[in-house]
C-alpha cells in the first residue's frame, strides 16, 4: 500500500514529463506516458493504443507547426502548462481533473501569445508499479465542440461504480 | 517494457519533491521581492548560476551578480510612467529527479509585469529551469541553476527533450558513484 502523497508525487511528475515530451517533440517519451491500450481524446478525435498515440503525436505536432507560427512564419515555440490538479486515487486507479493553458512566441514581433486554455480529464492506472494515463481527455474552451461544459469537471472524479 | 520515467517513486521521493517545490516557490518570492538575504540561503557555497548574462560560480559572486541584474531589470522593465515595473516570475510544472542526496529539475517558467498599456498586465517571456540540487544537513539547496529563455538568442531551451538530458545526467552520476 502506497500513500496518497507518494502516488500524487509520481502522477505530478508524469504530467510534467508528458508536457516536456510533447513540447520538445519527443514522441517516444510521450507515448510511454500511456498504458498499452491507453486512449487519447483531443481536438482531432479519439486515438486508441500506445502505438497509435505515438503516431498521432507526430501528426499533432506537424499540424500545430503550420497553425502556430512566429512573426517570421517559422513554427512557433509552443508550451503547454498545467496548474491546479485535483487527483483522486483508489488502489491502482486514479482520476485527475486539471487546468491547462498554452503560450507561444507567436505574438506580434516575436512577443508572447496565449492562444487557449482548457481542462484535462484523465483516468490513470498503475501498471507494474507505474502510474500511466489510461485515458486523457483534453478539453479546450476555445474550440467549438471541445469545451469542458457547464458541469464542474471535478465531478468526474466521483466513483463511477 | 517502455517506462514513462526511470525514477524510483518511493515515499521519500514524495517528501523530497515537496521540499524542492517549496524551495523553488521561495526562490521566486525572494527574487521578485528583492529579498537577497533569503535568496542567499538557497544555494550551496560552491553553486553555479547560469543565466542571460553568463555563468557565475560561488555564492558571493552569485549574489553580487543577481543584485546588479535586478538593478538593471528595474531600468529596462518600466511601467508607462517610467517607474520600475512590477515583475513576477511564475513557475508551472516541474519534472524532478531525485537520487539519494542529489536532485535534478526541469521546470517551466514564464514572467509577466504591469508594463502593458495603462499599466495593464503584459506577458513577457518564458523558458525553463535546469537545476541541480544537493541535500545538505537535511535541506535541499541549489548547486546549479541554469535559466534558459526561449526569447533570448543563445539561451534557448531544447531542441531535445530537456527531461531526457536530465535522466541521462542522473544515470551518468549513478554510474560514477557505483
Describe the protein's architecture and organization.
The complex is a heterodimer of chains A (161) and B (178). Helices cover 27% and strands 37% of the residues of chain A. Chain A is of the alpha+beta class and 161 residues long. Chain A is globular, with a radius of gyration of 16 Å. Chain B has helices spanning 11-32, 36-39, 59-76, 162-177, and strands spanning 43-51, 54-57, 87-99, 102-113, 122-136, 139-149. Helices cover 34% and strands 36% of the residues of chain B. The two termini of chain B are 25 Å apart. Chain B is globular and about 55 Å long. In chain B, strand 5 (122-136) and strand 6 form a beta hairpin. The relative contact order of chain B is 0.15. At the A-B interface, helix 1, helix 2, strand 3 and strand 6 of A face helix 1, strand 3, strand 4, strand 5 and helix 4 of B.
Keywords:
heterodimer, A: 161 residues, B: 178 residues, six-stranded mixed beta sheet, 4 helices
Short structural description:
The complex is a heterodimer of chains A (161) and B (178). Chain A has 161 residues and is of the alpha+beta class.
- Count every beta strand of chain B, where a strand is a DSSP E run of 2 or more residues: 6
Structural class, from secondary structure content of chain B?
A: alpha+beta
Quick one: biggest sheet of chain B? 6 strands, mixed
Q: What is the mean pLDDT of chain A? A: 95
The oligomeric status of these chains comes to heterodimer
Low-confidence stretches of chain B: none
State Rg of chain B: 17 Å
Shape of chain B: globular
* Helix count from the secondary structure assignment of chain B: 4
**Low-confidence parts of chain A:** none
The largest sheet of chain B has its strands arranged as 2-1-6-5-4-3
| Beta-strand residue percentage of chain B | 35-45%
* Spatial order of the strands forming the largest sheet of chain A: 2-1-6-5-4-3
Taken in chain order, the helices and strands of chain B follow as HHEEHEEEEH
| Distance between the ends of chain B | 25 Å
Which protein chains make the most extensive interface, counting residues with beta carbons within 8 Å of the other chain's beta carbons? Answer: A-B, 40 and 37 residues
Structural class given helices, strands, pairing of chain A? alpha+beta
> Helix tally of chain A?
3
Helical proportion of chain B, percent range? 25-40%
- How many strands in all of chain A? 6
